[in-house]
Amino acid sequence: MKKSEVVVVTGSSAGLGRAIAGEFGKHGASVGLISRNSDRLNAAKQEIEKSGGRALALPLDVADAQAVENAAQRVEDEFGPIDIWVNNAMVSVFSPIEEMQPEEYKRVTEVTYLGAVYGTLAALKRMRQRDRGTIVQVGSALAYRSVPLQSAYCAAKHAIAGFTDSLRCELVHQRSRIHVCMVQMPALNTTQFGWVKSRLPHRAQPVPPIFQPEVGARAVYWAAHHRRRELFVGGSTVAVVIGQKFIPGLMDEYLGRTAYRSQQYDGKQDSNAPNNLWESVPGEFGAHGSFDDRAHPNSVELWLDTHRSLVWTALCTAPLIATGIAGGFAYAFIKKETRKIKRRLRLLPKAA
């Protein structure tokens, strides 16, 4: 169904952000595209316009609060009131903690965490005036459970979760109708693994199972139109959340023994390869990374989570249906046996 709504997506020139922007675009939305790479933003803009939506390319760094504020105003000047704001922009560094540099922690924090804060502030400034709107924070299973070699990124995602919880409480206190949802993502086949700054001996990969970015994009679109507090994408995300809640010590042991290997794959890491920590990497990159042959196009868990009422109805009615079927068989059996007894009684000799 086409929806004439105004949406802003940060980090929308490639990877998950591009898939999210495309998902809104094909539903007829007017999309403000925020990222650092002008060429890819224009390519994303063309894709959205071809699919029936409208788009506005806004090249900027989300670590610049004033630039984010200016972009929000330009979207409203061009398209009208912002209905949905999606905070998705991120950068990361794959590295052991003792090899990380202070400026790297600062940069990951400024983009991944503070970028989400600045986007939220820009959205709230406008949504409060109308007392409506939705903010979607793109999270991760790593917002619940950190892994080795991604300490800066894990910390930033934890920070977004903490910030979002505070915001929810304040909105409740203010009796605001603005809705905030955090969508916790699994491992996705996105472009970040091709340009992330890395000190690993082998090339970086998402921890399997891997899902296509369109799975995450559909989750964000659904979350933007339903009053769900939090949405978990993929059974692996749910397993991580449950494991961290009940067996965090065992998770430490398990990830300490397996997560170094599971975040790398065949092929030596090129130490001179360009990375996107400080500047955007040039070139045309779409939504997908290099793991198409291993990525799942759908998530059963996500379908079940977004169809809770249907699943609940099925679970509630299943016993009734089973009882009805069993009752039918019982009735047929009793009726058959009754006929047999009557037949036998007719064959018995009559009493003198």
Give a quick precis of the structure:
By secondary structure, the chain is an alpha/beta fold. Helices cover 52% and strands 16% of the residues. The model has no long low-confidence stretch (mean pLDDT 91).
Structure description:
This protein is an alpha/beta fold and 352 residues long. The protein is 52% helix and 16% strand. A 7-stranded parallel β-sheet has the order 3-2-1-4-6-7-12, sandwiched between helices. A 3-stranded parallel β-sheet has the order 8-11-14. Helix 1 (15-26) links the parallel strand 1 and strand 2. Helix 1 (15-26) packs across helix 7, helix 3 packs parallel to helix 4 (102-130) and helix 4 runs parallel beside helix 5. The longest helix has 40 residues, at 308-347. The chain is globular, with a radius of gyration of 26 Å.
Largest sheet: 7 strands, parallel
Low-confidence stretches: none
User: What is the CA–CA distance across the termini?
Assistant: 83 Å
In DSSP terms (H or I, runs of 4 or more residues), the helix count works out at: 11
Which strand order does the major sheet show?
3-2-1-4-6-7-12
Number of strands: 14
Portion in beta strands = 15-25%
Helical amount:
40-55%
- Taking all Cα atoms into account, the compactness measure Rg is 26 Å
Shape: globular
The quaternary organization reads as: single chain
> Averaging pLDDT over every residue, what do you get?
91
N-to-C SSE string, H for helix and E for strand? EHEHEHEEHEHEEHEEEHEHHEEHH
